[in-house]
Design goal:
Length: 361
């Protein structure tokens, strides 16, 4: 089968190979034919080494498809069933799950160190799947808990977005920050996740939502998704002064994953306000805060992992909101490419012209 493979960390292009096979099928597993997958910034971060990931590997973790085979002991899933892939399934038994913080379950991360694929020719080599999945491939084998059934009226491309970016952005605003009606919000970084955070803040009733991004097309898109104003990063200070009288925003979402933008977000948050960190950053990138400001400003710093809540409930909520027309998911997909055009999709993300590119497989 075909899959897009990164041979070494640091390479900026993927090679689409046709001698890759999905491995590991057996009890407790399912084999899935991937139909659509989104390109998330986390995939690019793993390629560059910002996020830890063994190589060679198949990127992709935001996908949907149909079940081809079901292993022994799997219940509730059948051949032909339409599913989205959950890259962070909850085990239900660990301390985090028992506390109701299923998004902090580490069971899914254990799969990241086990090869999902294998080259079938030329020396046969193991290949990993990013985040234990690897959806830039025609087929994947994953734990049954990674396969979440979706209703027949949800297209594969929409389901794929719900599998990561939409759930992450909506959840940051609704679950983690719990944006209050009438509040002021700034969102720094307006790709697919940032736009979803904007939609979440709008759903929560925020009065002002300022989108901050260096790319003009993304700023224009943010206005269509619910932002009340959109500015370049160098105009954020002026927006803060005009909108909040210099006090700062009630909520600021950092959706870039860099200490520099997190520091800007902290300074843009009012005293007693909330900084919500959504972007996934590097292990060696440190955010510096002095102990006086941490105490004196009483700003809440809330990281948000995968939307900060039970992901299965978050999926259901996103589908219900989409059906009701309360959120726009179709317009998040600004570009579409086949698997053979994956490097075109990477360029679209790096230049910022795409909110989300859907890879149709």
């Amino acid at each position: 089968m075909r899959a897009a493979v990164l041979h070494e960390i640091g390479q900026d292009k993927l090679e689409v190979l046709d001698d890759v096979e999905a491995v590991g099928f057996g009890p407790g597993k399912v084999r899935i034919r991937v139909r659509a997958t989104g390109l998330c910034h986390s995939d690019v971060s793993a390629m560059s080494g910002v996020l830890p990931q063994p190589a060679p590997f198949v990127p992709g973790h935001e996908g949907a498809g149909e079940i081809l085979d079901v292993g022994d002991g799997v219940t509730g899933l059948t051949v032909g069933q339409r599913v989205l892939l959950c890259w962070l399934p909850a085990c239900g038994a660990c301390p985090a799950c028992k506390r109701g913080q299923t998004q902090l379950c580490l069971a899914g991360f254990m799969n990241a160190g086990t090869p999902n694929f294998r080259r079938s020719g030329g020396g046969s080599a193991d290949v990993f799947g990013f985040a234990g999945t690897g959806t830039f491939a025609e087929e994947v084998v994953v734990d049954a808990g990674c396969a979440v059934p979706i209703p027949d009226d949800v297209p594969f491309d929409i389901a794929a977005l719900i599998g990561c970016g939409v759930t992450t952005g909506l959840g940051a605003a609704i679950n983690t920050a719990k944006v209050e009606a009438g509040s002021s919000v700034a969102v720094i970084g307006c790709g697919g996740v940032g736009i979803s955070a904007i939609q979440g803040a709008r759903l929560q009733g925020a009065a002002q939502i300022v989108a901050v991004d260096p790319v003009e097309s993304r700023r224009e898109a943010a206005l269509r998704f619910g932002a009340t104003e959109a500015v370049a990063p160098d105009a954020l200070a002026d927006a803060r002064q005009r909108i909040t009288g210099g006090e700062g925003f009630d909520y600021v979402f950092e959706v870039v994953g860099r200490s520099a933008t997190a520091r800007t977000a902290y300074e843009t948050t009012r005293r007693g306000g909330t900084l919500c960190v959504v972007g996934a950053g590097a292990l060696d990138d440190f955010l510096q805060l002095n102990m006086f400001e941490l105490f004196f400003d009483e700003k809440r710093i809330l990281p948000s992992m995968y939307g900060g809540g039970d992901v299965l409930r978050s999926y259901e909520r996103a589908i219900a909101l989409w059906r009701a027309g309360r959120i726009d998911l179709a317009s998040l997909i600004t570009h579409r490419v086949p698997l053979t055009g994956i490097n075109e999709a990477l360029e679209q993300m790096r230049t910022g012209v795409a909110l989300r590119t859907c890879i149709e497989i």
